[in-house]
Amino acid sequence: MADDTAGPPPSMPYWHVYTDADGVSRQERFTLTRFELKGIDPQTAPQWNDRQAPSRASVTFTVLPVGWVGQWHENPRPQWIAILTGRWFVETMDGHRVEMGPGELMFGEDQNTKARDGREGHLSGTLGTEPCTMMVTGLEVEPTVNQPGRFR
């Protein structure tokens, strides 16, 4: 369905925390680009949607207190994390540290890492003087290995 008033398809940036072929966690910024203009049902006006593959999921609203640090750990399952308020950081085993704030999106998929130098998965924590609130959508899917940016 085309709609000239909607303009070109949008894109949406996200950070992908993933495990490479050597078992090292890494993170890179990618962009969701598979948007289609259509209503979510016949009665809804067209909107831009980038539909993901269907899967069972659980949603958790999380509040990380000021000063919170999650020592080295893997994401418990592949999960989308949307930052609502506050700021946090994620450092991967390759030494790359990313700071994120409200409106930013991350896909955590660092399962199956191999411990090195006391590091496994990622290190994360809050930044600043306010808690970091987020919406976490955990997917019941098999994690991939060495597929950075698999949603673009």
Shape: globular
Let me know the average pLDDT.
95
Our Rg estimate from Cα atoms comes to: 17 Å
CATH class (first level) name of the domain at 15-29 and 53-139? Mainly Beta
Q: Could you give the count of β-strands?
A: 12
Give the helix/strand class: mainly beta
* Low-confidence spans: none
N-to-C CA distance: 22 Å
- The helix fraction, in percent, is under 10%
Strand content: over 45%
Task: Please give the count of helices.
Answer: 0
CATH superfamily of the domain at 15-29 and 53-139: Jelly Rolls
> The CATH topology of the domain at 15-29 and 53-139, please?
Jelly Rolls
The topology string of helices and strands comes to EEEEEEEEEEEE
Largest sheet: 6 strands, mixed
CATH architecture of the domain at 15-29 and 53-139: Sandwich
Strand order of the largest sheet: 2-1-10-7-12-5
Quick take:
The chain has strands at 12-19, 25-32, 36-38, 47-49, 57-64, 69-73, 79-85, 87-92, 97-100, 105-109, 122-127, 132-139. It has 152 residues and is mostly beta strands.
